[in-house]
Amino acid sequence: MDSVTQAALGAAVAGVVAGKHCSPKVLLAGAALGTLPDMDVFIHYGDPVSDMVKHRGFSHSIFVLLPFSWLLALAWQRIKPTSFTFMHLWLLIAACLLTHPILDSFTSYGTQLLWPLSASIAVSSIFIIDPLYTVPLLLMVIASLLWRSKGAKLCGIGLGISSLYLAWSVSALSMIENRVEQQLVGTELEGKPVFIAPTPLNTVLWRVVVLGEDTYWEGLSSLLDKNPTIDFIAKERGEWPLADKPDHLQMLEAFTDDFVKYQQIDGTLTATDLRLGMVDYLPFGFRFAQQQADNSWQFMLPTTIEQPNVRIKHVPALWLRLLGNQAIDANLCHQAECPKNQTS
């Protein structure tokens, strides 16, 4: 999730755990602790694919954060003693740190909660920025600064509302999963890998991707649709043309569960993550090989493909689609890539 959300979550958690000791300083410390795991973005692993795959790695692992929180509590007590007992202080620090990756695991990106184990958790029920999750936390944290005697209670209310919304997002995802499963039964798409994620800033309109060998199908489904049938549009996925794959490409494929699109662009072989983004904006694309003068291919250290800016013109259409207007589905796809080949 975004830094504002994580700071608000950390502050609210700190306020609740602090109880009668809740104060502006405690809320500020909680906000700082809530954003601390994301400091790994300043670590450069040598190339953009490694940076992407290893983000939310060790700094988001419960096996790292638990002992780190213990050491941080020890150091805190020695440097600046507080009215907290050691166990209370450790609980506060651990709660602020651990709720960060737990919330991240509900997004689509993938969070390595069990690092160094290779499992990456992505519930994919909430977008990385969702005001309906963040605003209650922010309002209650601000209110707790104004009414300090009720700080812990107010933080608890904000945390409760946001937690209910998070639970709702999982329920909404389940409804869309059931809708997709029922539609694909008996079709050519039955049994193929499916990826479902919320569209930006909401949990009502969902993007659905079905993965084939050299084709993938993309569609939108809103909980407000009167007709539950999803109009899937076939898009070219491409294939890797070489017998060998560079290690970084294999790393990307593993990270995305093979939801990757392959293209040849300007004399380079590229691969793009199909999970993150929508419409004609897929932000995580990389070059892996360069064509030589003799038409052979030379593997290269991955570089990022520059992506076009998000098109503002899509925003009104997305809002109408969220409200259940299924007639505009085709207009939300890039016409060069989305022939009207619909599979029901």
TrEMBL record:
Swiss-Prot/TrEMBL keywords: Hydrolase, Membrane, Transmembrane, Transmembrane helix
MF (Gene Ontology): hydrolase activity
InterPro entries per record: Transcription_regulator, YdjM-like
Transmembrane segment boundaries: 58-76, 83-103, 123-147, 154-176
Protein name, as recorded: Hydrolase
